[in-house]
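FYI - complex with inosinic acid, inputs then prediction.
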Amino acid sequence: MKTVYFVTGNAGKFREAKAMLEKLDIEVQQIHYEYPEIQSDDLDSIAKYGARDAAMYLKRPVMVEDAGMFISALKGFPGPYSSFTFKCIGNEGILKLMRGVEDRNAQFRSVIGFCEPDQEVITFSGSVEGEISNEPRGKMGFGYDPIFLYQNKTFAQMSIEEKNEVSHRCMALRKFAEWL
Ligand code: IMP
């Protein structure tokens, strides 16, 4: 069985990756290490920088993931600033910004960076289209899940298995697992 070291402090991301990769016979271990997150409009560059730094510091092959929610009517905001925005204004703040806005289209994107010490980083990406709901719904998941509608359910109304069928993260993870 292969083992992958996922450097993340986000328990929700780790649970999803573990559930998905263990079905494919890949063991996932979580490592807590705060790699630097560069300021960039591009998730790929953020994941690459983080993976390279973590592999060098931890001296082993590592995987990191950078994700974000891009809202069409807000010209892609919060995008690469999703984590900071969530901490500052949360789902209530996003819903306030979206009050009365007709175009509710949004996209989640994920980029996984995999790096072995002294090697180039390899990235794998995934995305999913959805809509911003009018109110939070559901208790599962994390972050923006309660306001991200996929068809007629929010991600927070889906089990990990259901979310892992359609999410941005599972799409990137599937590509990574195939490569591995
Ligand atoms: P980062 O990838 O750690 O920079 O975090 C991006 C932020 O986007 C997280 O803090 C979450 O708030 C949010 N986020 C990323 N992926 C998801 C997801 O699958 N569901 C809900 N929120 C997410």
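The chain has one domain: 2-179. The pocket of inosinic acid is lined by residues 10, 66-69, 82-83, 86, 108, 141-145, 155, 167, 169 (CB under 6 Å).
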